[in-house]
């Protein structure tokens, strides 16, 4: 590009703008459709999340009821994290043509966790199935001997004179 040919500079600038506009439109269109679906290894949990990581669908298979509350909770969370990572990676790839090399791209890239849960260990296998023991009831105390209750205090009837109003303005 030379300063002597302003028409060439304007044409190149317009071409860059058109390319940027197309990439932006592609990103907008593809971002809206981006989602990730992950199924747990045993097939008892399937989670679908949107491009922002928000839960869109949760399906529990027949085996899910056999897991018990703590294990099922851990498996749902593990599967949701895997789906969120997939969705974030997908969004990053969509953003790449428009923002690669920018601080925004680096920020999005840095927000995606590097390592997954160890593939040999399932998070729900580490959950203790033993319920916590119920707290012991407080020791029963004997009621204290009925102490005589003082008689209710009754105020004196108010006098009808106006002198009392001077001391109590309300």
Query: How many E-type strands?
Result: 3
Average pLDDT figure: 76
Order of helices and strands: HEEEHHHH
Q: Strand fraction band?
A: 5-15%
The side-by-side strand order for the widest beta sheet comes to 1-2-3
Shape: elongated
Q: What oligomeric state do the depicted chains represent? A: single chain
- As a whole number of angstroms, the C-alpha radius of gyration is 35 Å
Please state the structural category. Answer: mainly alpha
Which residues form runs of ≥5 with pLDDT under 50? 117-121
Distance between the termini: 89 Å
The DSSP helix count reads 5
The description of the largest β-sheet is: 3 strands, antiparallel
Describe this structure in words.
The chain is about 45% helix and about 10% strand. It is mainly alpha-helical. It is elongated and about 110 Å long. The N and C termini lie far apart (about 90 Å). The model is unreliable at about 115-120 (pLDDT under 50).
